[in-house]
Amino acid sequence: MNQISPMAFVHPEAKLGDGNIIGPFCYIDKNTVIGNNNVFQNSVTINYGARIGDNNEIFPGASISTKPQDLKFKGEDTLCEIGSNNSIRENVTISRGTASKGTTIVGSNNLLMENMHVAHDCVLGSGLIIGNSTKFAGEVTIDDNAVISAEVLTHQFCRIGSYVMIQGGTAFSKDIPPYVIAGRNPASYFGVNLVGLRRHGFSNELITLIHDAYRLLFSKGTMAEGINEIKKNLQVTPEIQYIIDFVESSKRGIIK
Hints:
The chain is α/β, with parallel strands linked by helices. It has 4 helices and 28 strands.
């Protein structure tokens, strides 16, 4: 059974699962689907096109599936999909998709801190920690288990790899490959994310291998030459193959 405050508005066409708590002054629009055991504190707005999983807690002032801040948007019937077990803090805004991809996606087990923004057609993985007032422009992709500090500004179409640590106040317009620390303006490579990798159970041998991969990657004049050095000199484990694939598929270029 859902607990819905008499001071909340839930559109008759909204679809709710069971065990949800919807606080006062919440607004839930039509064409929304909400799973089970979610907690919406007061003044949460769930807009048209939202699809929300289970066990999420959303804090006051958050707005999910907002109309995209994109002048090309012409009212397309698009979605914003949120997974399960997320903590979405005060005043977070997450836009729904546009005709480009159709859906903005946020995975599961994420912490999205106060006042951060996810723009249209972004794809966020799972296990992310994203700091206060960080902003992602349209069509940004973030792989699993990244930590992105406060007030980070991300250019549209950029990709952030898994197990990355981005220092607070960083701004960037190139891709940040997996397993690294990045910082400054514009963002630069600061080495391998030793603390983060150890916390996630990476062995010292694997961390050394990843470090060697980046040493070789940045040792040559071009990324293609660096990739060839990796392939010639290192054991290509799944982690190293991920680095290779990430760099080779980058459309915006890689930070150095």
